[in-house]
Structures are given as structure tokens and as C-alpha cells.
Amino acid sequence: MVTITASHIVLPSQSTPQCHLWLSDMDQVVRQRHTPLVYIFKAKHDQDHIERMKDSLSKILVHYYPVAGRLSLAENGRVEINCNTKGAILLEAETTKTMADFGDFSPSDYTKQLVPTIDYTQPVGELPLLVVQLTRFNGDDEGLAVGVAWFHLLSDGLGCTRFINSWAKIARGDILEPHEMPFLDRTLLKFSHPPLAPRFEHEELKPLPLIYGSSDCSVERNKTVITTLLRLTPLQVEKLKKQANGDVPKGSRPYSRFEVIGAHIWRCASKARHLDQNQPTVVRFNAENRNRMVPPLPRNYFGNALTQTEATCNIGEITSKPLSHVAHKIREAIGVVNDEFIRSQIDVIRCQNHLDDARALFLGGEGKNAHFGGNPNLHLTSWMSMPMYEADFGWGKPVYFGLAYVPPHDRAVTLLSPYGDGSVTVLMFFQIAHMKLFKEFFYADISTCYGGILLSARL
Questions:
Q1: Protein fold of 2-189
Q2: Looking at 26-129, which runs of residues are DSSP E strands?
Q3: Which pLDDT does position 452 carry in this prediction?
Q4: What is the C-alpha separation between 391 and 411, in angstroms, rounded?
Q5: Res. 341: pLDDT tops 60
Q6: Regarding the domain delimited by 203-386+406-458, which CATH topology (the fold level of the hierarchy) does it fall under?
Q7: pTM listed for this prediction
Q8: Residue of 8, 152, 185, 325 marked catalytic
Q9: Which of 218, 295, 431, 433 has its CA 20 to 30 A from that of 265?
Q10: Res 370 pLDDT > 70
């Protein structure tokens, strides 16, 4: 359906440092794969666009030169970036399908064709860290997809978004201001002293609870996960916030949009699964820690600056108590992430004999009891603070942004819609057996005149 018509190796337009970039302990424990992202534009794909993208990519790689490098293995399982300017890859592609054929562009094997396929059988030192695919849709609607395969070791989502937006700014003919330049030196997080004993229990790194009566998660792991794309209008968001904050004592800080929407998703998932009321359930998510460390990391720190945390509760407590109670559980999980907690979690990594042991704590490792974020648990990802819709390459802002694949377990991704009206998009990945009930519960406490509106209605 999608055909690659040309491939370009894009190098920095000027000479850049030839060095090995040290990666922090937080970099070492992220998923060592590319994250597939897709931007959809209502724009015609022509040769001028290709040349503009190639030229601007070569310019932005001067400032973000590690992106043009390759991986290098160091001692004790550590990974570094060899800044050898082997380049990023830019692909041209076309499809016989129209934009309408892709529906709402929610993640699927269908949508994933708009993102480059990475060959992981090649030597690790040959893997490009950034591959971009520009796909022209068929038909008169003149649509263009920009699929991005971004290697997670480069940076977290915020770093990726800033790179894409800076690239887009150069493509429009603008120049980067000094305050927009990336801070590439990650040795701020390199500690010479021996690791200290962890100061917290770090439940967020321990095995997740299983469904009562189960000895392992293999049955749940093998169940089919599907995607739905749900939209909360500004009125619906405000109604949820009002519902959660109705019990907040006067003078207390109201629950945030993330706390409220995350609590709502967790509660709806707990209702839809029909589990025992005493069943423990965990929500895990990452807290961005650039401003939580002492001293804070530089604003434009380019790397992975995320700390894993979790909220835990029993199903009966979640489903019977008010939304404010569930939001408070999420707030408590956020509240523990301070400088001491972050450094303690880093020390957990440093105390391991080999980094593979540390990665197993964060990513689950191997075996039947490896971490599984699905039923009865859930993983939350919030991109609501990231300005991904500023990615205007000169043909207008994207009309859609999102993941382009279906994760293997239950997960929710929240992000703002492209309309700038305060509405929120929820990409929900959930077991097919429970999805229908989840969607019913999702809108049950919100005015039905706004329920069930999907992004596809406005694409």
C-alpha cells in the first residue's frame, strides 16, 4: 500500500564535533527501540517540499549533531552515541490510499505504514537514530504524512518535540535564537561518588500485581489490544475538573488536568474490567524532572529526564469513591518525585552489577513474570504539555499527531487536540474484550451532547 520511492542520507551542513557522547543512567534504562510518531498535514507533497526538508534537516543536525550519530557499546553494558556524522535518513513515499482511507489516523498496523520500518537485524553500530518518511496521499485532498522513527536513547518526548519544532522553524526560513539551542552535555548527571543505598522503597520498580488467581501474566499478555481515539471537549474537561475539585478544601490547590483525566481513565478502566473489589491495581507513569532536580537541569536539556512513579489502589476503592479520591492517589505519586527521590532511583540503577539488570527493573526483563502493564494495571503517558502542533514546515500546522503503533498492553496517551481550543485527545489502548464498556463509562458522567466526538470529524 505504501511504496518507498527514494531514500536520502542527510548529513550536517557544517562540521560538527567527532566524539562519543556519554549517556546518563536515565538514558540507559529507556526502551532501546525507535518510537514511531506520525504528523498529518493538509499539504501537497512535491519536490520543493522534499528539498526544503533535506536542506533544513542538514542545518538542524549541526545543532543536534548526536542525532546524526550511531550507537556505541561501552563497558558494563552502557550505551553511548558515537557522534560520527553518519547521518539521518529521509525517505520519500507514496500510497494509493487517500487521507479519508486512514480514518482518524488512530494507531494501527495500517497507520504504522506511514512510519519508517527499522531493520533491527543490522549491527547496532549501523542503526540510524532518526529516520523520517514523507508520504504523499492519493486523491485531490493533497495530504502529506511525516512519519518519524525516533530512537528513545536520544531523548524523551519533550526533547524530540523541541528537535522537530526547531527543524520546522528552519524549514520556514527562520533562525534559531540562542535560548532555543539544545543543551547536549549529559555529564550533569554523572556522579563520581559511589552509589548510596536507596532512600525509598521504589515500588514503581517492583513486579506489578497479577489478577487474583493467576500465577503469571501470560494469559493476559496474549489477549488482543485495540485502539480507540476519544476526544474531550473543553466543556467536558471542565466538567471533570469541577467534579474532582468539588471536594477539595478551600485554599487547597485544585487538581490539575492531568490528575483529573488520568483518574477518570483509571476509574473507567477499573469499572470495565469487572475484577474482584479487593483486586490491587497500579497506574504507572513518568514525571518530567528537569525542574524537579536541585539545581534544575538546563531548560533545553536534551536527553531522557523522566522518573517513573506509580499510584496503587484496590478496584473497589476506585470504583466506589469520588473522582477526587482517585485524583489524589495520582497527585501523591507525582508528589514523591523530588530531587531526593530522583537521585535515589538513579542510585538503584548504579547499584546494579550490570545495566541489563537495571533495564529489567524498568522495562520488565524476560520470563513469564516480566513487567506487564495491562490488566489489572495501566500505563499513563501525558503529552499535554508538549507543543507538537508547532511543527509547521512551511505548509501549515499538522491536523493530527500521535503514535503510529499499538502497544502490547493497556495504555492511555493524552495530548491536546490540534485546534487550540483546550480540547483533549485520548489514545486508549485496551483489551478488545473490555473496550466497549470502557468507552461507555468514559462518557457516562459527562454531558451526552458532547460524548463520543472523534477527531476524524474535524480532519
A1: Chloramphenicol Acetyltransferase (3.30.559)
A2: 34-41, 70-73, 79-83, 88-95
A3: 39
A4: 25
A5: yes
A6: Chloramphenicol Acetyltransferase (3.30.559)
A7: 0.93
A8: 152
A9: 218
A10: no
